[in-house]
Amino acid sequence: MHKYVIKRLLMLIPVIIGVSFLVFFIMSLAPGDTARTILGEDAPIEAVEALREELGLNDPLPVRYANYMLDLLRGDLGTSYKSGRPVFGEIMARFPATLKLAFWGMVFAVALSIPIGILSATKQYSALDSVSMVFALLGVATPNFWLGLMLIIGFSLHLGWFPSGGAEGWRSLVLPVITLGTGCMANITRTTRSSMLEVVRQDYIRTAKAKGVSHRKVINKHALKNALIPVVTVIGLQFGQLLGGAVLTEAVFAWPGLGTFLVNSIKAKDTPSVLGCVIIFSICFSIVNLVVDILYAFIDPRIKSKYK
After folding, report:
1. What is the DSSP string of 205-248?
2. What are phi and psi of 203, to 5 degrees?
3. Phi/psi of residue 79, each to 5°?
4. Residue range 196-230, pLDDT digits in tens
5. Which residues does 18 contact at the CB level (< 8 Å), separation at least 6?
6. Contact 166, 152 (CB under 8 A)
7. For the chain, how far is it from start to end, CA to CA, in angstroms?
8. Burial class (CB in 10 A: 0-12, 13-18, 19+), 194
């Protein structure tokens, strides 16, 4: 197992190199002058040129990228063009807020989707199954930013139950969590239903029922455990996407997390900050996938035996 974990961690190196180069190249093509953006439109040309030289923006693209990678090898994500502070510190100051939002969004999604998926599978073609699948389809098709705006209009502007933005208390967490968790809930529900339908048709399930085992015990003890692998896969992928894909949701609700920081950094052409965010997102996504693969070994003993 430890060899497998080390191998997967080493695979992060080419991922980080590829992602960082792609983002670095795209940011260099983005319109606008970073130095002019920092100093303002009224800044004298001499000050702009001096800042460009100080930041190394006059160097060729390969030289700038090579310098960045050399700093990255030393654990330095660079200095933010906009704030002048270390990028790592800026990210760590905001990462807990993003992690909190992603965690509760996933808790919301899992708490609703798995029971609904199980009920839909055990009551296939019933009214409950049809309604849950319609809502799942709507959840997949609804854009997060649109749902967030509708929730703000309904529950903040008209009813006044929850704040429209910020991160002050649990009330400010409700609408972003619902917005973020709805799409995940839809995907997990559909996966749980299809996986359970496949499992409940197996011979050992029919044998357990023939032996007089209660329906609830058959579902909870036998069927659910064997249907969990695809569900855990989807949960892991969705959680990784929540960590890196909460950009629009954070922007809509002015949530002080990495998503908002990333959007502001892109507007300012703050390349070190953008690169730092993308690298952290890539590492988080890869680690989540690794954790999911390790969980397989605890869910299915046949997979665990392959690591021995």
Report:
1. HHHHHHTT--HHHIIIIIIHHHHHHHHHHHHHHHHHHHHHH-HH
2. -65, -40
3. -115, 135
4. 777 777 766 667 667 676 667 777 666 667 777 77
5. none
6. no
7. 7
8. middle
3-state secondary structure labels for all residues of 237-274: HHHHHHHHHCHHHHHHCCCCCHHHHHHHHHHCCCHHHH
Cα dihedral 286, 289, 290, 294, rounded to 10, equals: 170
Assign 164 to helix, strand or coil.
coil
Q: Please, how many CA atoms are within 13 Å of residue 35, restricted to the half-sphere of its CB?
A: 16
Residues 255-290 pLDDT 10s: 778 877 888 888 777 778 888 888 888 888 778 777
**pTM check: above 0.85:** no
- The total of other beta-carbon atoms located within 10 Å of residue 109's CB is 27
Q: State the Cα–Cα distance between residues 129 and 283, nearest whole angstrom.
A: 38
